[in-house]
Amino acid sequence: MYDGGSLAQGRLCQFEPSSAASATGLELLRCLANDGVDLTRFYVCVYETIASRGSWMPVLRDVVDADADANDAADALLPLCAEAPDGSPVARRIDVKLFRRAAASFDAARADQAAQPSGKLAKGGYFGIGVVGAKNQANLGTLWRSAYQLGASLLFTVGTRYKNQPTDTVHAIQRVPFFELDDWNAFVETCAPKGALWVAVEFGGTPLSEFEHPPNAIYLLGSEDAGLPTSVLRACHATVSLESENYASYNVAVAGSILMYDRLAKARRRQESARLGVRGKGTQWSAGVS
């Protein structure tokens, strides 16, 4: 259970350590990473009454230790209580909290993307777009058509098998790499491009009119009725929301199309400003803001 300290605020995650009596910090970190936690953005603390004497104890010294092996001397040992003081069995549990790393902000990550070796002009970047738990196949066909028209580099679904739709009149999945993934862990482990920032499209994020698209981005949309799962939102580097005049919710294909058009339009405005020698109001990419 993490990100809040209570069940109402947090999340339950199944943890299977190699030993019944104790778990290692490395095992815990790998479990959280497999559940979608971005360990470059958060560090992990556990609460248990033996090793930490009733306080929050950091797990390992730095996220780089998550790549350590089982013999790493810095790894923490987390006792697992198998019975209550009276000897009766209890459900073993480790309480976990995530603390945001101050140096791993979204702006800093975008600045890393914007590095320009030897003073060369930055390339235009790339983006992919996908839907987690899609319910309407016709919407997917429309979204793939828009994605092809607006320059997407990859398409994907998570938890949904796609059937060819007449709404995809350009046969986008034959022109753009397309992936069908069983679940979120499959996306994290096998499909997420290295160096791309994950952007959730959901209520409560940065308004699209104010949003600055990362050069390399993966956009994630949720199902028409439930939106994106909490674990996906937590793993994303940023959240963007689409403004509206009346009803707040958009059809998933419409939302994705608006988002991709906004990316293209803003990129073309930057290109035109650069051609005319006009300096924009925002800070340049090297400082983390476009």
TrEMBL record:
Keywords, alphabetical: Methyltransferase, S-adenosyl-L-methionine, Transferase
Pfam families, per the entry: SpoU_methylase
UniProt-listed Gene3D superfamilies: 3.40.1280.10
Record has Transferase as a keyword: yes
Molecular function terms, GO-annotated: RNA binding; RNA methyltransferase activity
GO CC annotations, alphabetized: cytosol
Transferase keyword on record: yes
Domain of life the protein comes from: Eukaryota
Boundaries of every tRNA/rRNA methyltransferase SpoU type domain copy: 131-261
Family: Belongs to the class IV-like SAM-binding methyltransferase superfamily. RNA methyltransferase TrmH family.
Protein name as catalogued: tRNA/rRNA methyltransferase SpoU type domain-containing protein
Protein species of origin: Emiliania huxleyi (Coccolithophore)
